[in-house]
Amino acid sequence: AQRVTQPEKLLSVFKGAPVELKCNYSYSGSPELFWYVQYSRQRLQLLLRHISRESIKGFTADLNKGETSFHLKKPFAQEEDSAMYYCALKDTDKLIFGTGTRLQVFP
Amino acid sequence: DTGVSQDPRHKITKRGQNVTFRCDPISEHNRLYWYRQTLGQGPEFLTYFQNEAQLEKSRLLSDRFSAERPKGSFSTLEIQRTEQGDSAMYLCASSSPVPNIQYFGAGTRLSVL
User: Fold this and answer.
1) Is B45–A95 a contact, with Cβ atoms under 8 angstroms apart?
2) Residue B35 and residue B8: Cα distance in Å, rounded?
3) B105 contacts B91 by C-beta, under 8 angstroms
4) CA angle, B38 as apex, B33 and B40 as ends, to 5°?
5) Measured in Å, how far apart are chain A's first and last C-alpha atoms?
6) What letter would DSSP give residue B70?
7) DSSP state of B87
8) Which residues of chain A have a CB within 8 Å of the CB of B2?
9) What distance in Å separates residue B53's CA from the closest CA in chain A?
10) Which of A51, B37, B81, B108 could crosslink B43 through cysteines, CB 3.0-4.6 Å?
């Protein structure tokens, strides 16, 4: 079955520390993966997608088909990165989301 | 165009009542999606439209749920005979074929008492 797993509900780091939010997927086909972010009191918004291979707000994510992973990384966390992060997999035209990881960045 | 718009933002209803939510997509987006999100979970797909055609429905969408997009623009999601388990955030998203990126609305939070 198609599935997205985010094993950490909460990740707490201090400002300036590296961050890695884990995402693993199960998909029978060529996956298309996304990271969405939801800041406090804001709507869900796209952070990045794997086919773009871009860095947004210092975040990057590499698709590893061997490990079926799409971990989100940032070398130096900022307080404004505190938010809820969802990994999502496209299945035909719909998105399958993980349960999300809350990132807290302390000053 | 300020993005996907959903109305109302909050809805409180009594069990057994019918409720209807509206979603206005980004103009020029021909695809429209409905998701439901409960506490501690990510959004779960309910249904989606391409223009006015409803192309896929999740098993989550029981007979009490119905969605329409009559003119291929705005969409409505109706829940009949609401149950407490229907309490959730209902999210709408829209996209164009290229790039096929879904943009989300702020959601309608439903509370069934």
Assistant:
1) yes
2) 16
3) yes
4) 120
5) 41
6) T
7) -
8) none
9) 14
10) B37
Contact assessment for residue B89 and residue B44, using Cβ atoms and an 8 Å cutoff: no
Q: Could you tell me the two tokens for A100?
A: 């999300």
Nearest beta carbon to residue B42 from set A49, A94, A100: A100
For residue A62, give the nearest of A75, A49, A44 by alpha carbon: A49
Length of chain B: 113
Question: What pLDDT score does B1 carry?
Answer: 52
B41:A99 CB<8 A = yes
In a structure prediction context, what are the per-residue pLDDT tens digits for chain A, which is 107 residues long? Answer: 889 999 999 999 999 999 999 999 999 888 999 999 999 999 999 999 988 878 889 999 989 999 999 999 999 999 999 999 999 999 988 999 999 999 999 99
Contact (CB<8Å) B48/A93: yes
Amino acid at A52: S
**Which residue in B has a C-alpha nearest to residue A46's C-alpha?**
B103
